[in-house]
Structures are given as structure tokens and as C-alpha cells.
Amino acid sequence: IVVDILGKNTNVKDIDENVVDKLIIELMNKGNSNGTINRKLAALSKMLTFAWKRKLITFKPTIEWLKEGKGRKRFFTDQEENKLIQILRHADFNYFADFVEVLIDTGFRKSELMGLEKRDIVEYIDNEGKKKQRATVYDTKNGLNRTIPLTDRAQTILSKYEGDKPFAGFSDNDVRFQWNYARELMGLSKDKQFVLHVCRHTCASRMVQRGVSLLVVKEWLGHKSLSQT
Predict the structure, then answer these.
(1) Which H helix or E strand runs over 110?
(2) Which of 107, 144, 155, 170 has the highest CB neighbour number within 10 Å of its CB?
């Protein structure tokens, strides 16, 4: 099956991490589970080891296995997001409500958004000839700088705040207190997965639900491997 997908005439020297990522996506599209995909990746790994030992290739691309049996990752439904934001604004936690909305729309980590500077937000012209903005984050968790387009909502929120860093005014205690306040009122204090990082999961999940390629989601989130995505 692996050979059929890659192509029988594919040169083994042309198989790199990008080819492996495309193989994984093709297997996912065929409905293969993570466990089944890992078995097929194991077969590919053996083929590559065979080629490497016989000096047909000078390096063996890294193959990262998919996680098995971990269950579903938590993300917000539209109703949960609306309720969360409503609770925060009713409590006059408007700054934090804005912070959460931008996290959802960008998929940034908390530290990345706190460190975002106004000079890292620039205008560009999209495919329809409209003026839009994109933001770049540096020194990220995986050491990868990345740039993403901003939604209209994120642009509006970020433009509201003066100063070099729109969301530098938070402490970890502020974030923890206001998040737990909303979480309690939503009746989700026992939901261990209902944490701030769910905003990032939500951004990724909504892109996938709208048909965005996993390769694009991988780059958007700044993941080093497709298996992480």
C-alpha cells in the first residue's frame, strides 16, 4: 500500500520528511486510524533502513509516529466560546476577553501573544485586492518564527491598544484567576481539559473542519512535525 501511494517509480533518494507527511495525510484521507498508519510507517521505515544499509541513500529521513489511544483533544464549540466571552465581559474582564478571542483566531500560545509587538503586525494585500494584516511571532517554543494572517476580529482588537505590546499587561496570576472565574460559572471546574490552551486547539480544529490541509495547519501552529499536529 505504501509503495502504491508513493508510486512504484519513485526514487528512494527523493523520499524525505515532506514526502512522509504527504503519505500520512493520504492515509488519513483513506480513513486509516493512527495505529494503522503507524504500522504502514513502520513498513516504510524498514524499506528505508534496507536502502541505507546498502548505501542506496546517504541519510534516512526521520519518521515520527502518531499518537495512539489518547482520545479526543478538547476544543470550544461556538456556543461555549460565546458563553465564555459573555461571562468575561459581564465581569468587566474585557481585556482578558479580547485576549482569549485573539488566541482563538490566531492559535498563538499565551506567551507568544503576550510578547507580540505592534511592529510585528504589517499590512498586505490579499488575493481579492483587500488590505489585511498579518502578524509574526519570534523565539517561539519550538524555535521557529512564523507569520499568520489576522482575522478581522483580531485586527480590530489589536488596533484598540496602544503601546509596543498590546497584551503585555497580564501576569500569570491575572490570567489564572480570570480563567478559573469563567470556568467555574460555566460549570466546567471539573473538566481537566478546559484550560487556556484550548484556544489553540480550537483554532486548529476549526481550520481542519473547514477543509484546511494539515500541512497548512502544521505551519500555522509552528509545529516541527506533522505527528504533533
Answers:
(1) helix 110-115
(2) 107
Distance from C-alpha of 226 to C-alpha of 216, rounded to nearest angstrom: 10
Task: Give CA angle at 110 (106, 113), nearest 5°.
Answer: 55
Burial letters 116-155, b for 16+ CB under 10 A, else e: beeebbeeeeeeeeeebbebebeebeeeeebebebbeebb
User: 107-144, pLDDT tens digit by residue?
Assistant: 999 989 999 999 999 999 988 888 999 999 987 777 77
Classified as helix, coil or strand, 102 is helix
φ and ψ of 146, to 5 deg: -150, 155
State the residue for C-alpha cell 478546559.
194
Summarize pLDDT for 80-104 with one digit per residue, the tens: 999 999 999 999 999 999 999 999 9
Half-sphere exposure of 223 (CA within 13 A, CB side): 18
Residue 148 forms beta bridges with which residues?
135
Q: Which residues contact 215 (CB under 8 A, 6 or more apart)?
A: 21, 22, 25, 226
pLDDT band (50, 70, 90) for residue 62: confident
For the record, the C-alpha cell of 66 comes out as 502518531
pTM as predicted:
0.72
Contact 61, 20 (CB under 8 A): yes
